[in-house]
Amino acid sequence: xxxxxxxxxxxxxxxxxxxxxxxxxxxxxxxxxxxxxxxxxxxxxxxxxxxxxxxxxxxxxxxxxxxxxxxxxxxxxxxxxxxxxxxxxxxxxxxxxxxxxxxxxxxxxxxxxxxxxxxxxxxxxxxxxxxxxxxxxxxxxxxxxxxxxxxxxxxxxxxxxxxxxxxxxxxxxxxxxxxxxxxxxxxxxxxxxxxxxxxxxxxxxxxxxxxxxxxxxxxxxxxxxxxxxxxxxxxxxxxxxxxxxxxxxxxxxxxxxxxxxxxxxxxxxxxxxxxxxxxxxxxxxxxxxxxxxxxxxxxxxxxxxxxxxxxxxxxxxxxxxxxxxxxxxxxxxxxxxxxxxxxxxxxxxxxxxxxxxxxxxxxxxxxxxxxxxxxxxxxxxxxxxxxxxxxxxxxxxxxx
Length: 400
Prior knowledge:
Number of helices: 13
Structural class: alpha+beta
Number of domains: 2
């Protein structure tokens, strides 16, 4: 009985020793390509979703956004509130923002874009907008006449209810802020482009500029943007903030991302569909490889059965062969993917309109796909092996 169990291992070792090395290498390479195709598609769409989430954190909400407590319009004493927040364990930085209820005008074109008053130095610690300047420079503390605008604002505005061109806003141009029935001229210091529609339609002025324009807003904020030491700990940090007596309403970046849930769900659906197609292609590829290999060895199978080797052992041999092929293919695919493809696209991400997208691999998903490829290979080896052992011994030997 023990010697019978060794037969599949003996046969597969003999096969691997005597098979054409180039053919074997080609089989393993094709399996590796099928596996890479499965991983690449999923990694790309995961990268799109991850990029979208990172943009929300980096350019808009931080990890946590604090708005006024229920029943209040503003966060009064914003400077003290920021100091209180930063002192809480798990908080990396915080910055107050004030959304100015005004509109912008440029050469007769008017746009109801978001104008936000900030402390430039503090804002740099919670968002990365200052790193995305494509023209001019970022705001400096104490600048009472400057404004930086997003690429979307620099490109267009509305006039008489229609979308029109701003005719090209440049650094040094003057924009007019319409606030409370009064006009205030602001000089464009710089233009930023983050590729995030959550940020590129915004404009920023300093808190000092707003204090000059509307002194009653001094030391007030419409929200406070908070960055945590670690993404994923937002709920724990919020609990600490509440225990520390920080008064306000807290939202995590994930809650803010709900506005883009439809886009994310669309990518998830497309990813699922392409994954199914990828698995189907992998299954067909593996099946054809194993089937062709077994078909060419029908005579050998017939001879083995003729000398008394049971069909179950023959089937086990080819299932074992398919398993070895698939493991080798997954191993080679993993080496090529993480050795060449993944590092390359991390260094040179896809540059698409919604942002720069790198590949993102989930360990759990990677293991699942690896095991699935092996399982598909086993089934693909099992089916043709069963078919080959159902024909008569004589037909197999004669190749009929």
